[in-house]
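Hi V.,

Quick status before I head out on leave. The structure for the redesign project is tokenized and pasted below; the design run finished overnight.
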């Protein structure tokens, strides 16, 4: 491609071993997954194996999803190559795709470390919730206890 060709050719900057990915698909006439008319935000997924054969058709995740580079849950992976100049490209995915272009190992390390961080945060949140639950139960028990102790004991001794 020549930058001096003078045509108004759309800019493109394809990232090898990456694919655009979408958050949603639509259902076709026979309930089969289809590409939506509006792609919404376009994320990137990277081929962990560099020699993955090129895809010819979109991959749909009808059950569950997979993680895009930025961590967004995506349910469609398109067969083409992720383009940094894509109009609706997710900014975080573009940033990671640039790193992926330069240094795939570093990119994977960043994604993995974010994944670990998110999991650690989730664990923390769960621990805190469990603690709050235990605390709430403790308070309930105490109140019940107190109520029992301060209730007039008129049923006794008569
Ligand atoms: Zn993204």
């Amino acid at each position: 491609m020549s930058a001096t060709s003078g045509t108004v050719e759309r800019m493109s900057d394809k990232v090898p071993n990456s694919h655009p990915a979408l958050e949603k698909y639509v259902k076709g006439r026979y309930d089969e997954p289809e590409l939506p008319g509006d792609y919404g935000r376009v994320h990137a997924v990277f081929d962990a194996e560099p020699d993955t054969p090129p895809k010819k058709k979109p991959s749909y995740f009808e059950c569950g999803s997979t993680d895009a580079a930025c961590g967004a849950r995506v349910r469609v992976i398109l067969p083409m190559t992720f383009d940094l100049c894509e109009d609706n490209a997710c900014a975080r995915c573009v940033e990671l795709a640039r790193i992926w272009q330069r240094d795939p190992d570093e990119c994977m390390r960043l994604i993995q470390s974010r994944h670990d961080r998110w999991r650690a945060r989730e664990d923390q949140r769960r621990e805190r919730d469990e603690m709050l639950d235990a605390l709430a139960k403790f308070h309930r028990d105490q109140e019940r206890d107190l109520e029992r102790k301060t209730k007039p004991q008129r049923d006794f001794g008569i």
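Above is the designed sequence. The mean pLDDT is 89.

G. will cover questions while I'm gone.

Best,
W.
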